Predict the structure.
Amino acid sequence: MMNWPIHLIPYPINTKNWKPINKSHAKNILGVDKNKKIILFGAIGGTKDPRKGAHILEEALNILRDSYFENIENRIQILVFGEASDKKILNNLPVDFLGSFSDDLSLKVVYSAADVMVVPSIQEAFGQPASEAHACATPVVAFKIGGLIDIVSHKETGYLADPYDPESLAYGINWTLEDEERNRKLSSQARLKALKYWDSKIIAKKYTDAYHSALNI
């Protein structure tokens, strides 16, 4: 039986397009208080798809409110894209539902405004929003599952929580936000990882190398 070579090639990111904009400007565009920490969640269908883990995120946010952030409504703003809703408060938490976006520029503004993006998926082959957030210099907190393990470098570009554990997820969100210098470092390293591993030119070379390797067998 032949030992066929295996090449793991991630989706490419156009890092010239997906890049950070000034966080204060992004928050101004969205009408968000610049003094609040922004927690971002986004998925097609928003909170309605159980595979995206919004129900676990809700538990984690309640833990965050009860254990880490006093007066959370004055310190935290939660943004949700991919879903339109007239709800402004979810379990007494400040939530704005931004609706769906069909252009990259709007998403880039949203990613850039966030201090952390949470990807609490219970199933995830890769996690394109997480890599797009990294390209926009936004740290990501996610569960240590699937393709998210390849995107988020634990405590370097974000935090990988214990799978499906809301307490671990809440801890990771707080760990990412509690120290501003740490948050800035995570942001910078997230952008650098996107440039190093997912830039379109780098991915194109991986494909040509894979084809050349196959032809030389």
User: Anything to note?
Assistant: The first strand starts at residue 37 and ends at 42. The mean pLDDT is 90. The helical segments are 23-30, 54-67, 104-113, 128-135, 148-151, 166-177, 180-197, 200-215.
